[in-house]
Amino acid sequence: MTLIEIINLHKTYGKITALKGISLTVPAGEIFGLLGPNGAGKTTLIRCLCTLTRPDTGDIFVAGISVLEQPRRVRQKLGYVAQELALDKVLTGRELLQLHADIYHLPRDFAQQRIAEMVSLLNLEDWVDRRTGGYSGGMKKRLDLAMGLLHQPQVLVLDEPTVGLDIESRTVVWEFLRRIRAQGTTVFLTSHYLEEIDALADQVAILDQGKLIASDTPGALKAALGGERVTLKVREFTPRDEAERVQKVLQELHFVQNVIINTTQGNSLNLVIAPTPNSLAMIQEKVTSLNLPVFSVMQSQPSLDDVYLAATGRTLQDADLAARGG
Questions:
Q1: How many CA atoms lie within 13 A of 302 on its CB side?
Q2: For the chain, which domains are there?
Q3: What is the reported pTM?
């Protein structure tokens, strides 16, 4: 069953086009991941979905209800957790949860029941009656999730839910999202963390510069690429001219389908190769024929970064670096 349908969405800000004809469907009861570098259009899409930004053209339907025509009805079905935390440092966690319950006009008895459930579900018992100004980043994110789910929405929408969190806090959030998915809540999240989308998402869509470049299950997207991946480092930090010389000679090998220089990994070389006996040995021979060393070489199966690489000619890390002006 399709719960969210996004149809030919366009959005511009002055001369900047943030979304270029995005169409997606999100099944009910799944975790749907929106992957892409900073500036890809993820937050704009999220804001359109949550009725915070109006698209120039196109429409979004949530449970058959148009976001543009009936935004108030759609909001009843959505819980939204933004990337930036907005907690009043003076209030306790419980006071903030009660405030949100009042904003949602939840009946008092039901609100108290939901607050107790959220506190238990997110292990907030030791912190809920303390002022949030003393919370850690991970604890603030848990409280933010609790507020987003307080009114029992059909869809929980998360914009970069674990950005800035340590590994332990990130793991807690991941397990929580899996748990509410198992209970029937649909989760729509954005991320530029490859491992996060790979670990959580039942379906994934990849955005680049406002365009949809791929959409399917993570497994299907990786399987469609075929071949294997090789990461080669000539030196720990290879000069660009050396990387370009190696790139040129490796493209002469009959089993090498593509070679990309990864600037964010010290100008390492990312190769797509057809399965071939002794391929690593032949790659190393090509490098040493240039009187250059081989610092490391590693073979692996395709990843979501390879999906992005095949579609755009650059890695997600490179795209993030470019978006940040690096």
A1: 21
A2: 2-221 (3.40.50.300), 227-301 (3.30.70.100)
A3: 0.81
